Amino acid sequence: MKILVVCQHYWPENFRINDIVDGFLERGAEVDVLCGQPNYPAGQFFEGYDSHSVKEEYHGPVKIYRTFEIKRGNNSNLRIFLNYITFPIASYIKAGKLMKNHYDKIFIYQLSPVMMAAAGLRIKKKKKIDTTMYILDIWPQNLYSVLDIKSKLLRKMMYKISMSIYKKPDRLITVSEKMRRYFIEKLNRPEDNVTFVPQSPEKLYEERRSNAELRARFSGGFHIVFTGNISPAQNFDMVTDAAVLLKDEGFTDIKFIIVGDGMSANDLKASVEKKGLSEMFFFEGFRPISEMPEYADIADALIATLKSEGVEDYSIPAKVMSYMASGKPLLIAMDGEINDIIAQAECGLTSDPDDASELAKNIKTLYHMDEAERKKIGDNAYRYQQEHFERDKSIDKILEVIKGGEQ
Fold it and tell me: What CATH number should be reported for the domain holding residue 127?
């Protein structure tokens, strides 16, 4: 089986589509990828790439077709908008070249924007190729967590565009049961035409690995680690407010270790400076995914927050699944289905996404636990992840759905 994967983001950027493609290869499939120029999350092109390096290359056995896109740059609203529209247009044009290739299936890995599916849908229509879309970011709701769009007319237009795209694939995969129900009802699709397959972390998150230099740098205190994209959606203002409350109570040995980059990174650093929290926050910047087990190793807790925008009601964040695989206690400040999962797994503490005092209280609760108690909570996280969100089970299920169009 030869699969064309369409997604704006792919290696060397750190997205789970990289691991899913590896999973397809492990199971005997051939894979081509149509994607853009790597510049996420910092907004600058990776070394060896620029806006004009529209090229074909190989990553292992995977042939990659890259298209033009405007980089995210300083991650302003304008730059993100330009980035969002250039890849769909450029890849739609590039799709004409791919018409000559033979593909058995098309797999669209839909992050933001939903329009990134355009090229895959063009090839599907022209060549009558069975197509599956995996919906990670539900649109237009996810758009509003990144860009502040007030216009009712624009919101109505984006809803119509999004729904018209979601109607076109042969099958849909969603990342939560609530999202599955949403598309069944909104699109009037049959029950067996929309499948829930949770996001599952790469196997490397299960590794238990230490880094002596990192351990030496963070040798004392209570360590709360965040990894991933730093954007407005992460609601870091609430986290820094919680840190202020902790500092005022004398908990200055609590260290927030931020591993990642993104459009709000500079704003977060400025906020930390303004609130007098420099001794509590440590910015590691963008680090390779291979180093994540080393940062999990120094963590007493792993933190994930998300603004209350309505998006979280339909999603189970992939970051949380990776945290669970790391086997450490979780601090979650979100709405939605994820809170039920944390409660069922007994693997951490949850709080309202807008309540800094509640987050601070949860941090103090974990802080005062002894190491054995925290280890038990972390073990619960790993056990639940293995049972419900294990990587190989998810990839097998995705391939099962992709093959569903075969007679």
Answer: 3.40.50.2000
